[in-house]
C-alpha cells in the first residue's frame, strides 16, 4: 500500500481530472462494445466497487429499463441474489490480484452466473475480466456474453441453478 501523502489542492485536482478522463475513455469503449461490457470503479480508500459504465447490450440484455439505476451502485445494492453477488465480487477480487486478464475458471476467474432482470432466466458470464489501477483508483472491467443455463422456458423457472 502506498504511503499516505498529502497532495496540494492543485495536484489533487489534476489527479481527479486524470481519473475522470480515464473513466470517460472506458465509458466510451463500453458504450460502443457490441456485447456485454462494463467498468466498475473504486476510488482510493473506498470499500466497494461501483458501476461506472456499461454497454448498450448490457443495459438491453441484462438490466432492462432500470439500467440508469445501476450506475453509481455496488453489485450488492443492485442485484437481489446474494449468491450471484458473491460470484461477481470474487471475480472482481481475482482480477485485481491477478494483474492480467482473466479468461475463465482455468485462470482463476469464478463461474459467474446472474439472473437476467428482463427475462428472469439464469445465465453464465463467459468472457474476461481485468483490473486497471491508476493513481490509487481501481477500475475493474469485463467483456463477454451471457450463456443461458436454466434451459429457457422449460428450465428451473427462476430458482438459482446449482453450480457444479
State the end-to-end distance.
36 Å
Number of helices: 5
Q: Could you give the order of the helices and strands?
A: HEEHHHHEEE
Strand content of the residues, in percent?
15-25%
| Unreliable segments of 5+ consecutive residues | 154-164
Largest sheet properties: 5 strands, antiparallel
Count of discrete domains: 1
CATH 2nd-level architecture: 2-Layer Sandwich
Q: What percent of the residues sit in helical stretches (DSSP H or I)?
A: 25-40%
Can you describe what's shown?
This protein has a single domain, classed as Beta-Lactamase (2-Layer Sandwich). Helices cover 35% and strands 24% of the residues. The chain has 5 helices and 5 strands. The protein has helices spanning 9-32, 56-63, 67-70, 75-78, 82-98, and strands at residues 36-42, 50-54, 113-115, 122-134, 137-148. The chain has a 5-stranded antiparallel β-sheet with strand order 2-1-5-4-3. The termini are far apart. Mean pLDDT is 81; it is low at 154-164.
Salient structural properties:
globular; Beta-Lactamase; five-stranded antiparallel beta sheet; alpha+beta; 5 helices; 164 residues; disordered C terminus; 35% helix
Reconstruct the topology from this structure.
Elements: H1 9-32, E1 36-42, E2 50-54, H2 56-63, H3 67-70, H4 75-78, H5 82-98, E3 113-115, E4 122-134, E5 137-148
Antiparallel strand pairs: 1-2, 1-5, 3-4, 4-5
How would you sum up this structure in a few lines?
With 164 residues, the protein is of the alpha+beta class. The chain has helices at 9-32, 56-63, 67-70, 75-78, 82-98; strands spanning 36-42, 50-54, 113-115, 122-134, 137-148.
Amino acid at each position: 500500500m502506498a504511503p499516505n501523502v498529502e497532495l496540494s489542492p492543485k495536484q489533487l485536482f489534476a489527479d481527479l481530472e486524470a481519473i475522470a478522463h480515464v473513466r470517460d475513455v472506458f465509458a466510451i469503449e463500453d458504450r460502443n462494445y457490441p456485447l456485454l461490457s462494463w467498468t466498475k470503479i473504486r476510488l482510493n480508500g473506498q470499500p466497494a466497487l461501483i458501476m461506472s459504465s456499461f454497454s448498450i447490450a448490457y443495459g438491453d440484455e441484462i438490466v432492462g429499463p432500470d439500467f440508469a439505476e445501476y450506475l453509481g451502485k455496488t453489485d450488492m445494492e443492485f442485484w437481489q441474489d446474494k449468491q450471484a453477488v458473491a460470484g461477481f465480487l470474487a471475480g472482481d477480487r481475482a482480477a485485481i490480484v491477478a494483474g492480467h486478464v482473466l479468461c475463465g475458471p482455468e485462470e482463476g476467474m469464478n463461474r459467474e452466473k446472474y439472473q437476467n432482470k428482463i427475462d428472469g432466466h439464469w445465465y453464465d458470464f463467459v468472457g474476461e475480466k481485468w483490473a486497471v489501477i491508476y493513481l490509487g483508483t481501481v477500475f475493474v472491467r469485463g467483456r463477454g456474453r451471457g450463456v443461458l443455463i436454466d434451459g429457457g422456458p422449460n428450465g428451473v423457472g427462476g430458482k438459482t441453478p446449482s453450480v457444479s
